[in-house]
Design goal:
By secondary structure, the chain is mainly beta. The protein has 3 helices and 19 strands. It has 2 domains: 165 residues, Sandwich (Jelly Rolls); 66 residues. A hairpin with a 4-residue loop joins strand 7 and strand 8. It holds the Pfam family Laminin_B.
């Protein structure tokens, strides 16, 4: 019995560590988490804001309009071998202070050892928080070096870059002139903890964001809630709803199974 208990504990620790190691996350709940600003912003250090994010904390930077385009530069935890993120999503929330004098440029850059991937998003962010989720494969229009005249990236090239990521840059400047850009909720997904877009097509949850009960458009069994570190939250759920009013504000993953036993995973935001 003692050996069985020890084995269970070891397996639990291994499984938890594997689960929590999947997604690389910055939610800026307490500080800037090592993100930097590169370009013509007033400082290479972002301003940390404890309130006003989506929800809670976020980072922002002022643009001096001195020339060039400034970008958010990801910290070391997002870099290195990210091969397991191939085919998964890179998601983030952006906001800007003005919609005047907008311009286009590279919106996401992933720099590898020999190649750089560039992506142009369809729309610039609004004054309110705008969520983006981009696929790390050829389902997105990734280009080599530049989104306009660069060659279309192949899956093999995307995998090559992800095998040794040196930099991840997200554009923060969209106005030809002084402005403020803001960033929140950066998530680099990997195997086993990706937030499936197909899940959102099968089952809708509402309201989302919420500060209380959240309802499911279809009945779900074995519903569980995880934080972005992969830790399971102990909550009792019904077939068509769950109450998350006691959870701290933040982003969570709701998991469950539909009538066909298909695994459903949906991002859930608690205000």
């Amino acid at each position: 019995m003692k050996n069985l208990s020890i084995s269970f504990i070891v397996l639990f620790v291994i499984n938890f560590n594997l689960l929590s190691a999947q997604n690389i996350v910055s939610t800026f709940d307490s500080d800037d988490e090592g993100w930097l600003v590169a370009g013509d912003a007033t400082s290479s250090m972002p301003q940390y804001n404890a309130e006003g994010g989506n929800p809670s904390g976020y980072i922002s930077a002022d643009d001096t309009a001195a020339g060039g385009v400034w970008v958010w530069s990801a910290p070391a935890k997002f870099l290195g071998d990210r091969s397991s993120s191939f085919g998964k999503n890179l998601s983030f929330d952006l906001a800007q202070s003005s919609m005047d004098s907008q311009f286009d440029d590279n919106d996401v850059l992933i720099v590898g050892e020999n190649l750089t991937l560039a992506l142009n998003l369809l729309n610039n962010p609004g004054i309110e928080w705008t969520n983006y989720s981009v696929k790390l494969d050829t389902n997105e229009d990734w280009r080599i070096t530049h989104y306009v005249w660069g060659d279309v990236a192949t899956d093999e090239q995307i995998q090559e870059v992800l095998s040794n990521v040196l930099e991840i840059k997200i554009r923060g400047e969209y106005v030809s002139g002084p402005d403020v850009g803001s960033l929140d909720n950066v998530i680099l997904e990997s195997e086993n903890m990706s937030i499936s877009e197909a899940s959102n097509d099968i089952v809708k949850i509402y309201p989302n964001p919420t500060n209380g009960e959240v309802y499911f458009s279809k009945s779900l069994k074995d519903v569980s809630i995880y934080n972005l570190s992969g830790q399971k939250i102990e909550l009792k759920a019904e077939l068509n709803k769950v109450n998350i009013s006691k959870l701290p504000a933040g982003i969570y993953i709701l998991k469950g199974r539909d009538a066909d036993q298909k695994l459903i995973q949906i991002k859930l935001i608690k205000n």
